[in-house]
Amino acid sequence: MTLVLDTSLIIDIEQRKQSTITQLHRLSTLHPLPAKITFITEFEFHYGVRQRTPANKEQAIAVLHKFSVLHTSHKTAELLSELKHAHEKKGVTLPLADLLIATLAIENDMTLVTKDKDFQKIEELKSIIL
């Protein structure tokens, strides 16, 4: 099973947060295929490092380049609309960015690894909450 890393984990990796790195290392022994990120995670990370010095920004972006990126398709749009509608019908409101990350993981039959417990609200999603 391929893992998809959420933005919070990429931030922790870039900041060398040892507890997260240790947990991801353990997961990689169970899921040896290279982890991926979504284009939303790539966007959020780029946005977060915009104000850094050029050298620091370049070093941070190098972390992103270690991961393949999942992009959207026509199927993504269809699945996203279904997911958003199903959760709104239940009265569960989730940020569009989170829904899109979840949709890409579902569409590609991957497991999302995150620190964000809000993803537990998406029953259709295979996730690991650190």
Description:
By secondary structure, the protein is α/β, with parallel strands linked by helices. It has one domain (3-129): Rossmann fold, CATH 3.40.50. It has six helices and five strands. Helix 5 crosses helix 6. The mean pLDDT is 96.
Quaternary form: single chain
One letter per element, helices H and strands E, the order comes to EHHEHHEHHEE
What's the name of the CATH homologous superfamily?
Answer: 5'-nuclease
Question: Could you say how many structural domains there are in total?
Answer: 1
Largest sheet at a glance?
Answer: 3 strands, parallel
Radius of gyration from CA coordinates: 15 Å
Strand content: 5-15%
- Across the major sheet, the strand order is 1-4-5
Give the N-terminus to C-terminus distance in angstroms.
Answer: 17 Å
Number of strands: 5
The number of helical segments is 6
Q: Assign the structural class, choosing from mainly alpha, mainly beta, alpha/beta, alpha+beta, or little secondary structure.
A: alpha/beta
Average pLDDT level? 96
Using the coordinates shown, work out and report the CATH topology.
Answer: Rossmann fold
Write the layout of secondary structure elements.
Blueprint: E1 3-5, H1 7-14, H2 18-30, E2 36-38, H3 39-48, H4 54-64, E3 68-70, H5 74-89, H6 96-107, E4 111-114, E5 127-129
Parallel strand pairs: 1-4, 2-3, 4-5
